[in-house]
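Bumping my old thread because nobody answered last time. Still need a sequence for this structure:
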């Protein structure tokens, strides 16, 4: 019986690839037909998470290079092994940068600080949504890699193309497992939201029958910024990114730094920090999340904290501190410098990049979910630049306007103890309403 199931799974994968190749063309995104011709599934595994919720992972080869691999995830309820229940719809979740799908959307898999089902992916799956996700190819590059010439041109364009492949595969697998071949929602958190806008914009140039995206869920990020001081900040970052690229620095190794913060906070929490003078290792790791304006000048923070007059935190307000440390310890080690540049250039607004070329032509329904201590209402502006007539917006604000520095933060959307009621339930309600 196990052999039969295994062969059935392989047959589904073969069917999926054939269906994708026949259903898509180069008009979806430049070069997508060529990319799909190289697609193969290298590995698949299935894990029962709890009750009837299971997690599938597929390593998908998307090109000839050693690191031309993305990871496709599916989290769904099943009535029997390999037989999903009938779902109310499908959604593909894109993480931020640098993030893994599992770390940011399924935190219990990397931390024992929270219940097994406290994650947006499991919450949606438990409520009959067919949940999909993708790990970008750069997220799978190992920490020990030292030569990054292959990463020179890895940016938003590449991640958007891979997202189209992931969407096509998800739709085909849904069809093969009884869910229909309809379009699905695309949810992008942080950097993933920029990719979401880009994919939806590119799809406006294609016949509707070739489009994958049913609607967009933008989780606390902007595509364009209206505030001049914020734009100026990112113009400076873009200039630094370009200088790095010109110097042959193609990898942003922030992930290695963040892991070191976590390791020190857990192994020697009370020792003085060498990264942030005047703090302990524990405070430094929390401060990176709570007080980014003090550390880098960034206008938003990741997690709201209890901070003193100097911005030094003693604890986190909405997310368990250990969960935050575990997240920092499970970050992809390498991020393409080109994706940094693409993002900063978009926020700057004064540097020509093509990712917003078709922003005004997007007509699919949009849900914007923001955090008052994150991008918050600055994310509203991007939605007004589209042609969508179905735009829903909400902000999670738990502090007075003048206490933005300690309010619900960017990552609190997916990590906070009360995120289920504050953020995930409204997202679920929107998905069900747009089924």
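Sorry it took so long. Here it is:
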């Amino acid at each position: 019986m196990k052999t039969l199931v295994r062969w059935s799974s392989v047959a589904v994968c073969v069917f999926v690839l054939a269906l994708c190749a026949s259903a898509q063309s180069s008009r979806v995104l430049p070069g997508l037909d060529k990319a799909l011709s190289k697609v193969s599934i290298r590995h698949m595994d299935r894990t029962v998470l709890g009750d009837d919720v299971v997690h599938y992972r597929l390593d998908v080869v998307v090109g000839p290079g050693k690191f031309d691999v993305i990871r496709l995830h599916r989290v769904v309820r099943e009535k029997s092994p390999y037989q999903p229940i009938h779902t109310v719809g499908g959604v593909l979740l894109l993480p931020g940068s640098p993030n893994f799908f599992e770390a940011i959307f399924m935190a219990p898999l990397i931390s024992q600080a929270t219940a097994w089902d406290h994650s947006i992916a499991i919450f949606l799956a438990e409520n009959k949504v067919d949940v999909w996700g993708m790990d970008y190819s750069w997220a799978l590059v190992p920490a020990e890699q030292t030569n990054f010439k292959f990463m020179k041109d890895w940016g938003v364009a590449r991640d958007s193309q891979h997202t189209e492949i992931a969407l096509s595969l998800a739709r085909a697998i849904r069809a093969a497992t009884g869910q229909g071949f309809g379009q699905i929602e695309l949810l992008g958190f942080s950097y993933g939201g920029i990719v979401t806008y880009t994919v939806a914009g590119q799809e406006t140039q294609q016949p509707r029958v070739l489009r994958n995206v049913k609607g967009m869920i933008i989780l606390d990020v902007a595509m364009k910024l209206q505030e001049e001081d914020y734009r100026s900040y990112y113009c400076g970052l873009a200039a630094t990114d370009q200088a790095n690229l010109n110097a042959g620095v193609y990898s942003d190794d922030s992930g290695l730094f963040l892991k070191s913060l976590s390791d020190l906070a857990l192994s020697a929490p009370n020792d003085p920090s060498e990264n942030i003078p005047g703090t302990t290792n524990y405070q430094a790791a929390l401060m990176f999340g709570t007080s980014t304006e003090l550390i880098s000048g960034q206008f938003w923070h990741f997690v709201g904290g209890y901070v003193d007059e100097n911005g030094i935190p003693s604890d986190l307000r909405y997310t368990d501190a250990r969960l935050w440390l575990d997240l920092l310890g499970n970050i992809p080690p390498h991020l393409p410098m080109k994706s940094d540049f693409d993002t900063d250039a978009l926020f700057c607004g004064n540097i020509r990049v093509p990712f917003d070329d078709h922003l005004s032509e997007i007509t699919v329904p949009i849900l914007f979910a923001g955090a008052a201590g994150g991008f918050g209402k600055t994310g509203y502006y991007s939605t007004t630049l589209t042609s969508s007539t179905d735009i829903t917006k909400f902000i999670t604000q738990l502090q007075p306007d003048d206490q933005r520095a300690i309010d619900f933060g960017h990552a609190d959307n997916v990590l906070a103890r009360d995120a289920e009621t504050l953020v995930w339930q409204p997202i679920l309600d929107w998905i069900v309403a747009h089924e």
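Confidence is low (pLDDT under 50) at residues 1-11, 14-31. Let me know if any region looks off to you.
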